[in-house]
Specification:
The structure holds two protein chains of two kinds.
Chain A (H helix, E strand, L loop, with lengths): L9 H25 L5 H15 L3 E2 L5 E2 L4 H8 L2 H19 L7 H27 L2 H26 L5 H33 L18
Antiparallel strand pairs in A: 1-2
Helix pairs in contact in A: 1-4, 1-5, 2-4, 3-4, 3-5, 3-6, 3-7, 4-5, 5-6, 6-7
Chain B lengths: L3 H22 L6 H9 L39 H33 L1
Helix pairs in contact in B: 1-3
Classes of the chains: A mainly alpha, B mainly alpha.
Chain lengths: 217, 113
């Protein structure tokens, strides 16, 4: 759901950039306060992994493909939605500048959708469900599925405001495709959380106290 | 438990493997956003296949345009899959280094103040 430059008029792109920058500044503050030298490798490896995963377009039928976003994964294993904003912003900069994947004037909107909305929806869904069910696979899957679906709906609304898509058509198509992509996102997210908690449980801070045994539940 | 160095190396190898496999196996179909654009432009139906000649018409009036050095994660037709692999490897390593460098810089700057 990387929005190209051609899909949003420049003035609207600037508005999204301003909103995004507020969250980017908060994410930099998170990095300054919460990240220690022990966590540094996980943050950097997650960035590399999320970049690679986003380049893998999987077929979702109906003449459409989709790739994972990774916002929920970053937010869950690092215990903060701002971790997702931090990592996704850097990944989006590399993608936009080097590979033309996502525009430059639209990068603010892409940061809001995948980093901010994806990170917050993913983190709080996980936190809430983890508290209720104490079951990592269920909480992780639902969090990642919603963190794929909700940003795509936000994207459809932005496309409507930009005059690129009609609202109803955009919401239906974006919602349908990303509901399917979200299933893959959910499975991979749960697998990645399990893998990371297995090899380095000390690095994982899901922000949920009862999730200590996240990898084994 | 894995030490930091092993964790980083293992993590990057997994990321590179995913990226390289993607060069060969990734679907060429448009992504969700592009697919929706094709529907809106009447070139495809919601659940139907994407015609091979479908192309998104971009109205660039009043929009910004930018030519990236490696568009579509490739280095041009003549380079083929090798160009794709180089692009993905460069991108993956760069994503790692940019985040590591920035995070490290923030910590150093934080300590200095």
């Amino acid at each position: 759901m990387h929005i190209p430059d051609a899909f949003i008029p420049i003035p609207q792109g600037i508005v999204y950039w301003i909103i995004a920058l507020v969250f980017v500044v908060l994410a930099l503050k998170w990095a300054k306060n919460e990240m220690n030298e022990e966590k540094l490798p996980l943050v950097a490896v997650l960035a590399a992994g999320i970049f690679a995963l986003q380049s893998f377009n999987l077929p979702v039928s109906m003449g459409t493909s989709g790739h994972l976003v990774g916002g929920a994964l970053a937010a869950i294993v690092l215990g903060s939605p701002f971790a997702a904003v931090f990592i996704l912003t850097m990944v989006l900069i590399v993608q936009g500048v080097l590979f033309g994947d996502g525009g430059l004037t639209t990068m603010g909107a892409n940061i809001i959708n995948m980093g901010v909305i994806g990170g917050f929806v993913g983190f709080y869904t996980f936190k809430g469900l983890m508290g209720m069910t104490k079951n990592m696979p269920i909480a992780g899957f639902a969090a990642a599925w919603l963190a794929c679906l909700i940003p795509s709906l936000a994207c459809a609304v932005e496309m409507f405001i930009a005059g690129t898509f009609p609202l109803r058509e955009g919401l239906i198509a974006m919602g349908l495709y990303h509901a399917i992509i979200g299933v893959i996102e959910g499975i991979v997210t749960v697998a990645a959380i399990y893998l990371i908690t297995t090899v380095r449980p000390d690095l994982v801070d899901t922000g949920v106290k009862s999730a200590k045994g996240a990898g084994t539940s | 438990m894995m030490d930091n160095k092993t964790f980083i190396i293992a993590g990057i190898i997994v990321a590179l493997l995913i990226g390289v496999v993607a060069v060969f196996l990734a679907s060429g179909d448009p992504d969700g956003l592009e697919s929706t654009a094709l529907i809106v432009q009447g070139q495809k139906t919601l659940t139907g296949d994407t015609p091979p000649d479908a192309e998104i018409h971009e109205d660039l009036t009043g929009k910004f345009s930018y030519e990236s050095p490696m568009p579509d994660y490739a280095l041009g037709e003549e380079m083929g899959p090798l160009g794709g692999i180089i692009a993905i490897v460069v991108g993956t390593i760069l994503a790692f280094l940019v985040v590591l460098g920035l995070a490290y810089g923030i910590k150093v700057a934080g300590k200095a103040t």
